[in-house]
Design brief:
single chain, alpha+beta, Ribosomal Protein S5, domain 2, five-stranded mixed β-sheet
Length: 137
């Protein structure tokens, strides 16, 4: 397999959101669920997804990235996409260890992820911790 036809698949998750990124040689185009990253709303989510791309600077113009994300809310989807893109870039540019170091020094959660999940609801309450009070009278 030559370097020009190389494709990397990477995934990232946050809470119940799951993102799968496909990275291949290209011109720097990024699509999230088939839409260009530049038109993605809300803007906060767009900037969250762009973080790893801004950190690798000129290398982002060498690859095309296609991200499919589902589940969770829009911020969880953005964080999951961000993790998938960062992991994919590290894998794609294996021969350049400075990519991994740059991403890790900026934010460890770009590659490691955040393991926190919501606590399950318990009986006798409306949420995980809140319980119905007993009076005994």
């Amino acid at each position: 397999m030559s370097a020009t036809t190389r494709t990397v698949l990477a995934s990232g998750s946050r809470k119940t959101a799951l993102a799968r990124a496909t990275i291949r040689p290209g011109k720097g185009r990024v699509f999230v669920n088939g839409r260009p990253l530049e038109v993605l709303e809300p803007e906060a989510a767009r900037w969250k997804i762009m973080e790893p791309l801004l950190l690798v600077e000129d290398l982002k113009n060498l690859v095309d990235i296609d991200v499919n994300v589902s589940g969770g809310g829009f911020i969880s989807q953005a964080v999951a996409s961000r993790i998938a893109i960062a992991r994919g870039l590290v894998e794609f540019f294996k021969d350049r260890p400075e990519v991994r170091q740059t991403l890790l020094s900026y934010d460890r959660y770009l590659l490691a992820g955040d393991p926190r999940e919501t606590e399950p609801k318990k009986p006798r309450g409306r949420s995980a911790r809140a319980k119905r009070q007993k009076s005994y009278r």
